[in-house]
Amino acid sequence: VQEAKNYSAYKQWNYENITGIAGDSNYHSSTYITSSNPAKKVVIYMEPGDTASLEATDVVSIKINGETDANKIVKIDAGDLPFTLTGLTVTSLAISNSDPNSGEALSVLSYH
């Protein structure tokens, strides 16, 4: 029971921009979320002051803990941002955009 209560306690957080999605539909990984530094909570949102916002037709794809038969890709509409992942341990995170344009970026805030 105590361990479950401590799951919502964070000892550090990290912030990073995923700018590679601008003009590139490949997946771009978070450098802070790793198997040796798993995240307990992740918030994905549009970069404040972005020169180009994601369009309503853009679909953001997220690979959580790699893609296997048990772990599928999560697809969300740009209008659903910010998007929060909680309740699971995230050991890797990769993001792509279906229709990348110049200047678009997403930010990731991870709590460890």
How is the secondary structure organized here?
Blueprint: H1 2-6, E1 13-18, E2 28-29, E3 39-46, E4 59-64, E5 73-77, E6 83-90, E7 93-97, E8 106-111
Antiparallel strand pairs: 1-8, 2-7, 3-6, 3-8, 4-5, 4-7
Summarize the structure.
The chain is 4% helix and 41% strand. The protein is mainly beta.
Give the proportion of residues in helices.
under 10%
How is the quaternary structure best described? single chain
**Strand segment tally:** 8
Number of helices: 1
Class per helix and strand makeup: mainly beta
How would you sum up this structure, described in words?
- This protein has 112 residues and is mainly β.
- It is globular, with a radius of gyration of 14 Å.
- The chain has one helix at 2-6; strands spanning 13-18, 28-29, 39-46, 59-64, 73-77, 83-90, 93-97, 106-111.
Summary tags:
112 residues, mainly beta, 4-stranded antiparallel beta sheet, 4% helix
